[in-house]
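Let's practice the habit of predicting before peeking. Look at the sequence and jot down your guess about where helices and strands might fall. Then scroll down.
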Amino acid sequence: MLCESFCESFPALDAIPQVRAGFMRRVPGLDMRVARELALERLRAAHDDGREAAGFSGMVFATAEQVHGSAVAGVSADTTFPVPSADGLLTTRPGICLGIYVADCAAVFLADRLGRGIALVHSGKKGTEQGIAPAAVAALCHAASVDPSDLVAQISPCIRPPHYETDFAAEIRRQLASVGVRAVHDCGTCTASHPKSYYSYRREKGLTGRMLAVLAIREP
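Done guessing? Here is the structure:
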């Protein structure tokens, strides 16, 4: 379902009253045949407007450097962003909007059912091989004093076979289940199969925009 024209939401996360989540898709009318940093600059205004429309207005916007690694950083309002060398972010504090950019890689949302903590990670082939999703589960459970069975996981649209040789979304699902996350949801959408809705690094040969995944604990 859609929270706005280009902001996609997920029923499993919408069902948690204390949590707000969104996934901003391709923005119509923008030339994205450019390198990553210029693409993000061109998308900045649309993403700012999208966060406001989706209910993230006034929140601290937390981002990570995203180096295709497995580091997950805890963040607060005082953290400097983007967090160096990190591909995942977590917080136990309301009012902080975690943000991860993807274009074929998956954004993996993790949220405690009672809103005691959240995490958001960038997991493509490399990050999945390094186990960033289970690393985020361990870090979040420690920070929020919760159990993996308390968490809800959601995998965003990402590239999938036959457009990609590795089904890393399936591996993320397996990894999450193996560490005790019982509620693992995957939208099943392939970014490369829907060029009008999503950017695809593989399909567009590296010159493309980025989707923005956002996740926050609502203010009391």
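How did you do? The chain has one domain: 2-217.
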